[in-house]
Structure formats: C-alpha cells, structure tokens
Amino acid sequence: MSVPTTILGTDGLPRCRWCAIVPEFEVYHDCEWGFPVADDVRLFEKLCLEGFQSGLSWRTILTKRENFRRAFRNFDFHQLAQFGETQVSQLLLDEGIVRHRGKIEAVINNAKCAVRLHAEYGSLAAYFWQYEARRAATALPQTISIPPQATGLSKDLKKRGWKFIGPTTVYAFMQAMGLVNDHVAACVIAKRVDQAREAFTVPGRTLQSFGRRA
Description:
Blueprint: E1 6-8, E2 14-16, H1 24-31, H2 40-53, H3 58-63, H4 65-71, H5 77-80, H6 85-91, H7 101-121, H8 124-128, H9 148-159, H10 167-177, H11 190-199, H12 210-213
Antiparallel strand pairs: 1-2
C-alpha cells in the first residue's frame, strides 16, 4: 500500500503530510508556505533563516523566528550591511537565536550583497522572481529532486558573493516564498496557492498574472 500524500488537519481537511509533524507547522503551512511573496525584507529574511536551518530542523528556526527578527533588525538588509565584529560578538551571546558564527557572518555578508542586488535590479523580488519554477504536470511535489531554477539561482548567488545558499537551501526558499507551488494536489491549500499565484503581480514583468504567462 502506498503512503498517502496528505494527512487530515485539525479541521478534518487534507493537507501536506509534513505540516502534521508538530503543531506549529499547520498554521505556517496554511498561511505562509507557498504563497507568492514580493516583499524584499521577507524574501531576504527567509533566505537567511533557511541558511540558519542548515543541519537543523525547521521547527527549531520557526520557534525562534521572532528572536531572529529582533536580533537582526527585522532583517532590514540595509541596516544589517552596516554590522561589524561588535554586533557579531553580541549576537554570539544571544541565547534566543542559533549562535553559529559562520551563519551569523553569512547574514551580514549577504546583507551587503543584497544591497548591491537591490541597486542593480530595483528590488530583490525582481531578481528572485526571474527564477520562478513551474512543476511539470507529471512531476510529484515535494520530491528530493531540485529543479534547474534552484540550481541556477544558487549558482548565480554564489557568483555574487552570497554564502550558505546551496541548491537545497535555495529550493526550500523557493517553495516557501511561492516561486513554485509544491503543495500536493489533494492538499486543501494547494488551490488557494494557485489562485494567489494567478493574481500575483510578478515584480519586474510587464504581464500582470501567472495566467497570462501560462
């Protein structure tokens, strides 16, 4: 017997199985995961948090997210780009976040890269949404295969000096920020995400909705 791709949520409706792992995941799954995002700060925050997740669980990062926001100036990359060793030392003493020097320094490094990227493209969103991925009709969602768009984005970010942005990290970022709808078809949220993507105005593009570009 094959393993079902969904599990019933607290309201009795089917959802992606992973959102039942811990109670915190259902709200995150229903309200955030997969919905398209154009806000530069949210995009930068998510990429940073995915970097912090490397080697850890998403639950660890999600439960500490408000602490991360407090510690990292709400992920305002223009402010973070000004951080130096004094701020790094302070962050290493902050028990509310993941105290990993390499990851903390990567956030500051990536903030500087983000400032340059923002100046070049006008917004981070305009840059990231170039890598929108559409899953083929025959492809299964949430597979371990990484689409070429994620590999391409990771490679380009590395060329631009970003750190802790391997293909797996980048793909998780794309799934969460709506650059691909990776909800399983039977999930009650999948259609809502599709509708949000149809109505979404992609930054930097002249055509207004995903439907017009299908």
